[in-house]
Amino acid sequence: MTAALSVDRLEVVFDRFRALKGVSLEVQSGESFGLVGESGSGKSTLLRAIAGLAPVASGSITVSGKKLGARRDKAFYREVQMVFQDPYGSLHPRQTVDRLLQEPLAIHGFADGEKRIQRALDEVGLGTGFRFRYSHQLSGGQRQRVAIARALILEPSILLLDEPTSALDASVQAEVLNLLEEIRRRRKLTFLMVSHDLAIITHMCERLMVMQSGEAVEHLTAADLVERRVTRDYTRNLLRASEGFVRTA
Amino acid sequence: MSRDPTSTLLEVDDLRVTFPTRTGRIEAVRGVSFSLGRERLGIVGESGSGKSQTGRAIMGLTPPQAEVTARKLAFDGIDLLAASPRDRRALRGKRIAMILQDPKYSLDPVMSIGRQIVETLRTHERVSQAEARDRALAMLEAVQIRDPARVFDLHPHEVSGGMGQRAMIAMMLIAGPEMMIADEPTSALDVTVQLDVLGILDRLVSERGMGLIFISHDLRLVSSFCDRVIVMYAGKVVEQLAASELGRAQHPYTRGLLNCMPKIGADRHPLPVLDRKPEWAA
Question: Residue B215's beta-bridge partner residues?
Answer without folding.
Answer: B43, B183
